[in-house]
């Protein structure tokens, strides 16, 4: 089959790889209908050292179950399913606590002998625990929104949930990428009435407004923080959703969070330390968030997608054939595309 | 009257200062029955540059209302009251949210023209909001435990509450000072079943066991972390209460917190940055805590003290006359005394 590999920074190739087959009784093989490129795929795309041997890449996909191992009880050939971006048993203590990203038996797509998500098919370990049936057909118009359940929408949701967003909290979202916009949508869904989106790409912030942002702040740095404080009577917001992962974004988050408030981060941190000393202590600021246990949220978010109450798939602004994956990476890295679907 | 002043590191003096009088209609004057020395007083005692003019010091006291301003409605001469370590109006939005340390009209003892707590009397601003009536007499045997409501017990409680301690969480407490021991007591009171106390001063950890610690780990650094992990099946604890304020203690906290867990800090941070990068993100670790809004907790904790269900005053192991304040500081700095009461 064909699958995407990364050979180093800027070097994405679609090549022939072995067809996936059931190895373990708990495996399933899924034929991919749609996969997509994640903002976090852009970190290795920007900086991975060149290597002779490529690594499989991609961790967001939905597809059709083609084959199941003898121990798989909850899935059948033909089921249309979505995979969260970490596979997990969904039964261990961490999974039962909703922290599937720390599953005692789970792991990441593309690691070891596990397939990446950007290919024609994927061997799914622990298929009963990992996959969620969507109850739609292969040609559903909802596939893009359902694909966001793999990562980007639950990631925005995790950010909002861990920050404690509810109908009484004001919210700042930092970052107008697909995760930031999903965080806006999640905050709105959780009842927040004031959602300030910090971002300066107008097409994206316009979508942010449609998703529920009440204010957009295009300024950055000290000027941007001042603007958020102005919008909140000088106090900042109860919750700040940091959806970038770079240190200036986190600095901004601390600059706009209200005393007693919470900063949640879901952008993979590209920094080793956090400036969080005595001034933050004096204000009782909390830093939370982390890699989102998407699996924990899919059942909760799915009905809203199926019934059309939310349209998280609007973050996709380009669909390319799998063979053009390299072009998709380039377009996202150059911010020409917000988020790209790859269709085998 | 007589009051304690700090002139610089190691230089504590008890001197004559003006008698406090009611300035504002919302003031009260309280004659101090007991005050005490805080671990946080030891930071300036260790490092404050020498100055010609001394600064008033002390922020934990209880006493008798001697005089009230014309706008004070909830207090009368003769009431025995405790003061939280930050004065506050108890009516602004932050106070209503339980964050009295960020009160829009409050402030710190010993700052500006406000008295410090280690003296014979104190002018209390916003007395109706700040002071809590204790309903005991001047000679109550409970005064030491009631005095802890000023700071150390609510600080331990804040640490446990913000960490999310309950009957289902395992707990590590880092630090066997008065705050750490109070955190043990608070965690036990909130229902925690496993409470691991990290500390190496046996007299203190023995009191920690009486307060509810189920395990004591005397080792430090990597060895201590390994010991906590052994005690928790390799995982660490759901909550870690960091009651020291130094960077190695925070490093230890991150080393023993379970994936998905929370570190809460109530030791005033003596560091500008926190090592909290990608590994912590991957484990969904939360850092919370801060300066404790003692005022928010006094009404909740008071009945347990009055009815003898908890004895937080056991953290005091020495009582000195106010005139010997300097000796109290020395004894605490040299870890000869755990926590010292000053009695005018």
From TrEMBL, chains A, B:
The keyword Iron does not apply. It holds the Pfam family ADH_N. This is IMP dehydrogenase. Keywords: Metal-binding, Zinc. InterPro entries: ADH-like_C, ADH-like_N, GroES-like_sf, NAD(P)-bd_dom_sf. Residues 178-303 form the Alcohol dehydrogenase-like C-terminal domain. GO terms for molecular function: metal ion binding. Its cofactor is Zn(2+). It comes from the Bacteria. Gene3D superfamilies: Medium-chain alcohol dehydrogenases, catalytic domain, NAD(P)-binding Rossmann-like Domain. It comes from Streptomyces roseus. Residues 26-127 form the Alcohol dehydrogenase-like N-terminal domain. SUPFAM superfamilies: GroES-like, NAD(P)-binding Rossmann-fold domains.
């Amino acid at each position: 089959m064909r699958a995407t590999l990364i050979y180093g920074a800027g070097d994405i190739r679609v090549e022939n790889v072995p067809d996936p087959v059931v190895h373990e009784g708990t495996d399933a093989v899924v034929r991919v209908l749609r996969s997509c490129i994640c903002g976090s795929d852009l970190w290795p795309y920007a900086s991975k050292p060149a290597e002779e041997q490529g690594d499989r890449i991609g961790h967001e996909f939905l597809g059709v179950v083609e084959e199941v191992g003898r121990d798989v009880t909850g899935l059948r050939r033909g089921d249309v399913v979505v995979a969260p971006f970490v596979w997990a048993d969904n039964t261990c203590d961490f999974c039962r606590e909703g922290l599937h990203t720390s599953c005692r038996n789970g792991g990441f797509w593309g690691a070891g002998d596990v397939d990446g998500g950007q290919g024609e098919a994927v061997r799914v370990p622990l298929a009963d625990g990992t996959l969620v049936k969507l109850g739609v057909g292969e040609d559903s118009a909802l596939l893009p929104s359902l694909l966001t359940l793999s990562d980007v929408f639950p990631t925005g949701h995790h950010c909002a949930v861990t920050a404690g967003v509810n109908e009484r909290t004001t919210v700042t979202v930092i970052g107008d990428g697909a995760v930031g916009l999903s965080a806006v949508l999640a905050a709105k869904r959780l009842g927040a009435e004031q959602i300030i989106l910090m971002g300066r790409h107008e097409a994206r912030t316009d979508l942010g407004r449609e998703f529920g942002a009440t204010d957009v702040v295009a300024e950055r740095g000290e000027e941007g923080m001042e603007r958020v404080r102005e919008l909140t009577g000088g106090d900042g917001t109860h919750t700040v959703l940091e959806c970038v992962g770079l240190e200036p974004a986190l600095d901004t988050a601390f600059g706009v969070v209200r005393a007693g408030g919470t900063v949640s981060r879901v952008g993979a941190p590209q920094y080793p330390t956090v400036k969080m000393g005595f001034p933050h202590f004096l204000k009782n600021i909390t830093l939370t968030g982390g890699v989102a246990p998407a699996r924990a949220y899919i059942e909760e978010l799915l009905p809203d997608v199926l019934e059309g109450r939310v349209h998280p798939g609007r973050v996709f602004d380009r669909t390319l054939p799998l063979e053009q994956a390299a072009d998709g990476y380039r377009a996202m890295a150059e911010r020409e595309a917000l988020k790209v679907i790859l269709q085998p």
